[in-house]
C-alpha cells in the first residue's frame, strides 16, 4: 500500500507520518511523472494529490487548506511516497483496524468517529449543504478578482504561502469542483496559479 505526500492531507504532520513509517520503502515522484496524472486532476481535483503534483514541480512552503487554520507544508519529502505492506498500515492505524469489520460507508464513518471523535464526511456534507443554493454561488462570483485579492492578502498575513483552489472556493462561496474557478485563477495570473495552488504573494 502506498502513502503519498506525507503530511499533505493535513491530518497528520509529515514528521508524524515519517516517524511511524521508518521501515517503509521510500520512492519519489519526479516532475516528469506529473504529466501522467494531470488529466485526471482536471476532472477530479483531489487536493492532496494536487499538492503532491505541485511539490513534484518544485513548489515549497505553507499551504492553507481549510478555514479552521488547517495548513500543510510542502517540503522536499512532499513529492515522495512510502510503500508499506497492508498489514503494517493496519497495525499503525486505529481507524483502519476499526473499519476492518465494516461493510458500508455509514458503518465505516461510525467506526472512524469512535476512534477520532469526528467525521470528515460530515464536514463535507455540511459544506455541500451550505453551497447548495445556486443563487448564492452565482452571486459571489461578482467582483471575483477583487475578492480574491483581499482573501490572498489575508491568507499571506496568516503565514500562508499558498492556498488551494478548494480553499478559495470555500472562502468565496463557490463550488470546489468549478472548472470556471480554476480557469479564472489561471486567467488572472498564470504565474501565481500552480494548480491546484494559488500563490498568496
Describe this protein with a few key phrases.
201 residues; alpha+beta; 5-stranded mixed sheet; 3-stranded antiparallel sheet; 11 helices; 8 strands; globular
What does this structure look like?
This protein is an alpha+beta fold. It has one domain (2-92, 131-199). The protein has eleven helices and eight strands. It has a five-stranded mixed β-sheet with strand order 4-3-6-8-7, with helices on both faces. The chain has a three-stranded antiparallel β-sheet with strand order 1-5-2. Helix 2 packs antiparallel against helix 3. The relative contact order is 0.15.
Concise summary:
This protein is α+β, with helices and mostly antiparallel strands. Helices cover 51% and strands 15% of the residues.
- Overall number of strands: 8
In terms of DSSP E residues, the strand content is 5-15%
Instruction: Give the helix proportion (percent range).
Output: 40-55%
The spatial strand order of the largest sheet comes to 4-3-6-8-7
- The shape, in one word, is globular
The oligomeric state is single chain
- Count of distinct structural domains: 1
What structural category do the secondary elements indicate? alpha+beta
Order of helices and strands: EHEHHEEEHHHHHHEHHEE
Q: What is the CA-CA span between the terminal residues? A: 37 Å
Largest pleated sheet = 5 strands, mixed
Rg calculated over all Cα atoms: 18 Å
Mean pLDDT score: 84
* Stretches with pLDDT under 50, minimum 5 residues: none
The total of helices stands at: 11
Amino acid at each position: 500500500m502506498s502513502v503519498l505526500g506525507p503530511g499533505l492531507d493535513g491530518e497528520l504532520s509529515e514528521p508524524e507520518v515519517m516517524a511511524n513509517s521508518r521501515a517503509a520503502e521510500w520512492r519519489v515522484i519526479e516532475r516528469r511523472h506529473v504529466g501522467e496524472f494531470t488529466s485526471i486532476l482536471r476532472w477530479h481535483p483531489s487536493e492532496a494529490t494536487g499538492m503532491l503534483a505541485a511539490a513534484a514541480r518544485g513548489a515549497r512552503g505553507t499551504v492553507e487548506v481549510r478555514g479552521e487554520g488547517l495548513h500543510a507544508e510542502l517540503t522536499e519529502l512532499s513529492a515522495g511516497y512510502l510503500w508499506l505492506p497492508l498489514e503494517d498500515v493496519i497495525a499503525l492505524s486505529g481507524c483502519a483496524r476499526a473499519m476492518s469489520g465494516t461493510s458500508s460507508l455509514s458503518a465505516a464513518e461510525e467506526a472512524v468517529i469512535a476512534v477520532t471523535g469526528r467525521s470528515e464526511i460530515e464536514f463535507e456534507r455540511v459544506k455541500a449543504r451550505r453551497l447548495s443554493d445556486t443563487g448564492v454561488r452565482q452571486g459571489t462570483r461578482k467582483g471575483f478578482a477583487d475578492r480574491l485579492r483581499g482573501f490572498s492578502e489575508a491568507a499571506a498575513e496568516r503565514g500562508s504561502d499558498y492556498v488551494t483552489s478548494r480553499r478559495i472556493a470555500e472562502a468565496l462561496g463557490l463550488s470546489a469542483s468549478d472548472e470556471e474557478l480554476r480557469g479564472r485563477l489561471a486567467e488572472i495570473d498564470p504565474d501565481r496559479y500552480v494548480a491546484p495552488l494559488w500563490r498568496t504573494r
